[in-house]
Amino acid sequence: MKTHDQRVALLYVIADAIAESVQYNRQPTRPWIEEVCACFSETASEREETHDNKGDKREKHDNEEDLVNALAKAVQLMLAKLKMTCKDSNLLQLTDTRLGPQASASARLWTWQSCAEYGYWQVAYKDSVRSHLIDLDWHMRMCNALFPLPSGSKFSTDVVAETNVWSGDKLVAGVGAATNIHFTNGENDPWAPLSVTEVSPVVVDRQGLSSFTIQDGSHCNDFYAYGRTEPVAVTEAKARIQNAIRGWLEDFRERREQQKRKVDPPLTKTFSATSVGGDSEL
Predict the structure, then answer these.
(1) d(CA 99, CA 101)
(2) Cβ contact 11:127 at 8 Å
(3) For residue 128, what are the CA distances in angstroms to 35, 120, 132, 194, 265?
(4) What pLDDT, in 10s, does the model give residues 34-91?
(5) pLDDT tens-digit profile of 202-216?
(6) CB-count burial class (<10 Å; 0-12, 13-18, 19+) for 106
(7) Of 128, 104, 144, which Cα lies nearest the Cα of 136?
(8) Tens digits of per-residue pLDDT, 220-233?
(9) Domain residues of the chain, as ranges?
(10) What is the mean pLDDT of residues 178-189?
(11) What is the rounded distance in angstroms from the CA atom of residue 171 to the CA atom of residue 156?
(12) Contacting residues for 178 by C-beta, under 8 A, at least 6 apart
């Protein structure tokens, strides 16, 4: 690791691997939360056994080393689950713009949206796994490194304010003037607090908005095809999406037909007395 930003990028990979165990946990096929937690609980159990056998208190640096080893084990587990390498997960790899199946392809799209539109940076919270070095300034430097703007321009957080004006600030202006949107969130999804989880009846009627939260669900649970082993709440979420889209299409067809009838009124024949009788008087 040659530069400060490269070192921070590695710290980001480590923290993100742990976060993804929660974000992409999917019962019963992906019990990733339990598996990652096991990496730490097993280490704790081993530490207790060592205490009992030695009969003395281990030094603080030994405990920290145990935690680092547990973290490394968890990161290796998640990278294997995601079929990715440490290099694949590195934000600095997103400069690769080749067409192909490389793991960074979708991440580059998401990162561009974050840089150019709405932020949503995963900065460090106090005393969390995510390093305090992963801050807003680092993300801004990543944006400028990955997506160089013309004429020496730089990305800034001003774009977030502009996006909120356009779409409606979640906390201030609700959902703006948006129509026909169904919000689906997982109860355990770390992103859920940033989404719309409740819609007032007034907005439902006026703008055709609705929302549903998947009990014990995680990120993008509703994106996958129907499965025999999926929880009932996930099946319900998918059904609600289908019903919402069906309703929007039916409403669109009805409004289009109404518009056609206004533009093309039915042809009717009108006759005047002169056209029937010519110039003769009755």
Answers:
(1) 7
(2) no
(3) 19, 17, 8, 19, 67
(4) 999 999 888 766 666 555 555 455 556 577 888 899 999 999 999 999 888 888 888 8
(5) 888 888 889 999 998
(6) exposed
(7) 144
(8) 889 888 888 889 99
(9) 1-85, 90-164, 168-263
(10) 90
(11) 21
(12) 167, 168, 207, 209
Residues ≥6 apart with Cβ < 8 Å to 123 = 130, 134, 135, 136, 139
User: What one-character-per-residue DSSP string does 171-214 give?
Assistant: TTTTTTT--SEEEEEETT-TTGGGS-----HHHHHHH-EEEEEE
Beta partners for 26?
A: 30
- In this structure, what token pair is assigned to residue 152? 């020496």
Tens of pLDDT along 116-160? 988 888 888 888 888 999 999 999 999 999 999 999 899 988 877
Contact of 82 with 20, CB cutoff 8 Å? yes
Detail the DSSP E strand segments found in the chain. Answer: 181-186, 209-214
pLDDT, residue 35, reads: 95
> What are phi and psi for residue 73, nearest 5 degrees?
-65, -40
Tokens 């948006």 belong to 178
Mean pLDDT on 153-179: 68
Rounded to the nearest angstrom, the gap between the alpha carbon of residue 163 and the centroid of all alpha carbons in its chain is: 16
SS3 275: helix
Task: Tell me phi and psi for residue 71, to 5 degrees.
Answer: -65, -45
